[in-house]
């Protein structure tokens, strides 16, 4: 049975993954809310429940591997790959540049599903697509746990997400919380 948006929201709330405050997103935009996907995926049973829905959404596509950006996409990508019965690799940043390391290789013509935890501008996903394509992969689709883009991203391939979150983001120079003198924090890198 497909998960409803209410089912998914309940998991996010039960795991306290939805934070309120003043946050700097990976995209550089500021937001009052932050979705900390790792708080959901610390529970393997929630990871399995969510990833099973993603796997079902992509089961009739020809997929040879799942590829995700480190760190956020790794657990999701691994679980989706397990459920699809394919391998999983990840990209990571070295000196700011997204790259494929650890001996991971892609055979020419392999079909890849790109899996990310949260998309806002889609920047990291686009970098993963560029690396995968330059390594010979064909991108079958992109999938995310949470889409915060408001429908404003396109990857040129089918794109699915489990949950669409309406979020107001601001450029730092236009951020009302910054204007009010509040300090923004980067939740991903906080201890
Ligand atoms: Zn701000």
CATH topology: Rossmann fold
Number of alpha- plus pi-helical segments: 6
Reading off the top of the CATH hierarchy, the class is best stated as Alpha Beta
The number of strands is: 9
| Largest sheet composition | 6 strands, mixed
As an assembly, this protein is single chain
Structural class by helix and strand composition: alpha/beta
Unreliable stretches: none
Bound molecules: zinc ion
- Give the averaged pLDDT, no decimals: 93
Query: What would you report as the Rg, rounded to the nearest angstrom?
Result: 17 Å
Alpha-carbon distance between the termini? 37 Å
Helices and strands, in N-to-C order? HEEHHEHEEEHEEEH
Question: Can you tell me about this structure?
Answer:
The protein has 191 residues and is α/β, with parallel strands linked by helices. It is built from six helices and nine strands. The protein has helices at residues 5-14, 37-41, 44-58, 74-84, 123-134, 176-179; strands at 18-24, 30-35, 65-69, 87-94, 97-100, 111-119, 138-147, 159-164, 169-170. The strands form two sheets. A six-stranded mixed sheet has the order 5-4-3-6-7-8, with helices on both faces. The protein is globular and about 50 Å long. It binds zinc ion. Zinc ion (ZN) binds next to helix 6. The site of zinc ion has 7 residues, from helix 6.
What key phrases describe this protein's structure?
binds zinc ion; single chain; 6 helices; 191 residues; globular; alpha/beta; six-stranded mixed beta sheet; Rossmann fold
